[in-house]
């Protein structure tokens, strides 16, 4: 017989309130309160279609003329988990990225619909590049009509429906090695980094499958967690979930349960394709997805035990230091160069950033010293979910997992917002696409050792679970 313990934190909603954590972490147990409370784990799941209208522009590599067809529907899946007075809503949306303002609106509205604080709504984007524009990216702006009329209301509908028929549940988990991903920072002989495949580069090969069953042993829902860009289709005009959609459908068919994909820290990880590149076509997406589906089914079948488990939540502030602001003369020179050059994909966005830098200097200001994120960490038994609103290098996930005391530490990239890339510190000296995007993300970019601060402050939060 399984002995079950529930460690719920602080308020009536079981949420830990954490004081602001500076760059050098000083949080102590005195910042937290813990209580014990009995209660059965319950889950509910629901899904809504979020496919855009034809003609909508893609966020990734799609045509400027807009989508011409639908290969497979985009979806948002909501999994509500409750234990005693603690409740969380885990959501997976098959879009590329979700901007900070939109993510905040969706989390607040979904939290209201499901009866939880916005902080307890975890919103992950699977990162398909064959979907609509849901954040400001380069010179592209939000597809406001799509976000307001399809994305937000259907996310709310999924969250609301997920709490209607909550059922007592047990949890099983297993992991397997998967080669769905490969490091994409291809290093040329001249020491230049391009987007391709790097067979000796770091990537996260661990795929984790979490399954929930009811009291009769029937599968209720599954989560698949792994890390690789959903860019296998490449330049394309058909709406699609990319390779992850094939994997999701395969495990749903095998288990008979709604399955959601949680994208991991995929900042430097491409789908592993036979063409040796970081993008391909629909055929490549189907091949990668089929292999990922085999891996997911293997992990699902390896689950040997389903248990009643505790649910706990820790919330707090994570502060990642910024580097110094760009010198005024450098910003003015760079802006002049852009004004004289031919327009490109990133031109207007970079002009705006340089203008902000120059304006800050004119006001005698230096910009924000820290990137501040209101963090929520969720634990179910030995499974911990760590949301991160960046595209983070996979090394960070490996390090966090190695330092964690929990058996399944799952960092979620592209979650609860979008703030460009966050490369590992040792990648910055070589440059490349991810590093270039970091450099142009804000008037004061994340400091070179931002990865260390991200890891250590989340580890400190995890100690309170």
SS summary, helix count: 10
Query: Share of helix among residues?
Result: 25-40%
Total beta strand runs: 24
Helix-strand category: alpha/beta
Ends distance: 24 Å
Low-confidence region ranges: 1-38
Q: Main sheet, how many strands, which sense, barrel?
A: 5 strands, mixed
Rg for CA atoms:
21 Å
- State mean pLDDT (0 to 100 scale): 91
**What is the 3D shape?**
globular
* Proportion of strand residues: 25-35%
What does this structure look like?
With 465 residues, the protein is an alpha/beta fold. It folds into two domains: 7-318 and 369-462, no CATH class; 326-362, no CATH class. The chain is 28% helix and 26% strand. It has ten helices and 24 strands. The strands form eight sheets. It has a five-stranded mixed sheet. The longest helix has 20 residues, at 282-301. 53% of the residues are buried.
